[in-house]
Amino acid sequence: MYARNAEQNRILGLLFPEEPLTEQGVPQKRRRRRTVKALRSGAAISEKGKRITLRIEEREDLSRDILKSEACGLTIPEIDLALQPGTLGRRFTTVEDAPEQVYEEMPERTYAAEASSTMVDEDRQKFQDFLKQLKEITNAEKLPFTLIQDAPLANSYLQNLYTPDPGPNMEIVTYERT
């Protein structure tokens, strides 16, 4: 299993000086995430788009780093989650925290499921069921599942634990943008 060390976390801005470390160099009180908004690509815009598909089968897969650009869509087909480009903005986080962020932000970005008077009971129940499934994925209670990043500008990233070899559960496809 791959895990960043304390120095890598500090460089990435994921570890704060006031956090005491365990003997293994891991923060005692783990910060779930830190959104990096000042992150910008220094490369030219790619002529092709990139779709990264990762089949998450073990809890360890959830620790992979993920960089989602603003132009990147994110899909988890098993629960019918399809985030269009622009949703959630730019994020540098882990596979585990990406669905958690969706879970936290979706109700406030759509409608308050409990407070909406225009929502019929059936729709309210479907939304609550969807949020429950999203939480199950976040807690690794619903494995395996598939995470798809579709980046038309090819400026998103999903960590391959087997680099430089291709990962057994990861597929990277480049495509012509239309």
Describe the structure.
This protein is 21% helix and 22% strand. The protein is of the alpha+beta class and 178 residues long. The strands form 2 sheets. A 5-stranded antiparallel sheet has the order 4-3-6-1-8, with no helix packed on it. A 3-stranded antiparallel sheet has the order 5-2-7, with no helix packed on it. A hairpin with a 4-residue loop joins strand 3 (73-76) and strand 4 (81-83). Helix 2 runs antiparallel to helix 3. The radius of gyration is 17 Å and the shape is globular.
Output the number of helix runs. 3
| Sequence of strands across the biggest β-sheet | 4-3-6-1-8
Estimated helix fraction: 10-25%
Cα end-to-end separation:
38 Å
Instruction: Give the oligomeric state.
Output: single chain
Structure classification? alpha+beta
Main β sheet profile: 5 strands, antiparallel
Which spans have pLDDT < 50 for at least 5 consecutive residues?
A: 29-33
Mean pLDDT: 77
Based on CA atoms alone, the radius of gyration comes out at: 17 Å
Secondary-structure element order, N to C: HEEEEEHHEEE
Shape: globular
Number of strands: 8
**Beta content:** 15-25%
